[in-house]
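DM from R.C. (forwarded with permission)

"hey, sorry to bug you on a friday — could you get me a structure for this? deadline for the figure draft is monday and I only need the backbone to look sensible"
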Amino acid sequence: MSWNLIESGPADADHSVLLLPGALCTAQFYRDLMAEPELADVRLIAATLPGHGGTPPPEDFSIENYARLAAELAAQFECDAVLGHSVGANVALEMVASGLFDGPVVLLSPSLSRRDESIVPRVLDRLGRVLGDLPFTAMLTVIGPAMKGSLPAESQEMLIAELRKNDPRVTRRHLRSYLQYLDQHGSVATRLCQAGRRAWVLYGEHDDVSITDQERSTLESCPRTTVITVPGSSHMIANMAPARVAEILIEALVPTC
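My reply, with the result:
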């Protein structure tokens, strides 16, 4: 499987981090985070999930397969940590939950269950069962206006263009598999807790992905998991609050006894 990658930082850096974007997004969505001065000495590898942003899709769309592929990439670059956003966060969660990666993870707006997910993907999945690819084609047509205000003004047009590269047929298949993964576990909050890895779970103050009280309680009871609400941020935390994310990522890279 070939990956669409963007890299920054010195090749011989003391630390390397794999960055996994969310659904429909590409590695370009991490440009704001990669530009943070605090991360200048960290090797960052942003990797578009196969099938997203118009990239060639995998044969297997399961989150488990994405986790296997991402774990292989993390091993290739000798990554100390993994940071994922949205679906990319779910992939990172599965990497540690299945024992494929034993480092710390920073999870930006993961959906821990189907009901946590934004209403739009859930509705699209239901419509797709009846209307096929048509709802996904329509969604990609209107995604520009829908994203305004959720991305930095200076990079908004470029990032929206990245979203429009997606193939509706691939998006439909990915979404179905992703929601099936969440349904299979009911909630992956306990799964993350049982993994026993250091984890930071972030949600934007105005996030359209939610977390139930029970899930929050489960994560807050885990001695190695920290749940954080980022003030003023939407779902696109790495774009809207890159300095805060960089700060947490540096914290994740500090080894503990």
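R.C.: lifesaver. The chain has a mean pLDDT of 93.
me: no worries. The first strand starts at residue 4 and ends at 8.
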